[in-house]
Amino acid sequence: MLNELEPESVVLSDSDSLGGETALLPAPNHITSREDAVKAGLVVDVTQVAKHFGLHLSVGITKSLWEKSITGPSTISPESWNDRVRDMLLAVRLRLASLENPTPWIEVPVLLPVEEKEAPELFPIYALFHKDPVVAECLTLIHPQEISSINMSSFSSGDDSSSGGSDRSVS
């Protein structure tokens, strides 16, 4: 189901070696769209997988969240990455279904095993609904440690203009 997430098809690091040279990411002010962020390796696109869970919008996982929760420690096998993406997207979908009035910024508890074959532990993530200049509606899943770099006042629950209204593309 998640063939597009094969390890060799995802850029996971801004310091990956490409023919002996270091890959350089564009400066943050040159990344103006979700598409730019995906191309720069800052966001992993999981849109096609998300559609299986009723999330009919562009969905991405930040590089930090991907490395800390999907690929995790070296004991997490690449074969289990797909299961971890599935579990994360299912948690997001269930959290959205539980909310009477979703806001653009949602905390989502996810159960993920820390090591292979261990009991899952609670791992909080954040779901951010936003507009994009290229794609109308987007959902980006963010690691909690990335929050300080985001201006939270832009996402106050009283301001519905940043979310594109109350219509969420979920079914």
Question: Notable features of this structure?
Answer:
23% strand; alpha+beta; five-stranded mixed beta sheet; globular; 171 residues; 22% helix; 4 helices
Could you please describe the fold and organization of this structure?
The protein is α+β, with helices and mostly antiparallel strands and 171 residues long. 22% of the residues lie in helices and 23% in strands. It has 4 helices and 7 strands. It has a 5-stranded mixed beta sheet. A two-stranded antiparallel ribbon has the order 1-2.
Report the sheet-strand fraction: 15-25%
- The share of residues in helices is 10-25%
Output the helix-strand order.
EEHEHEHHEEE
Oligomer: single chain
User: Helical element count?
Assistant: 4
Alpha-carbon distance between the two ends: 20 Å
Write down how many β-strands occur, each being a DSSP E stretch of 2 or more residues. Answer: 7
Please identify the structural class as seen in this structure: alpha+beta
Tell me the Rg in angstroms.
16 Å
Average pLDDT, all residues: 76
**C-alpha geometry:** globular
Flag low-confidence runs: 6-23, 153-171
What strand line-up does the widest sheet have?
3-4-7-6-5
Largest sheet: 5 strands, mixed
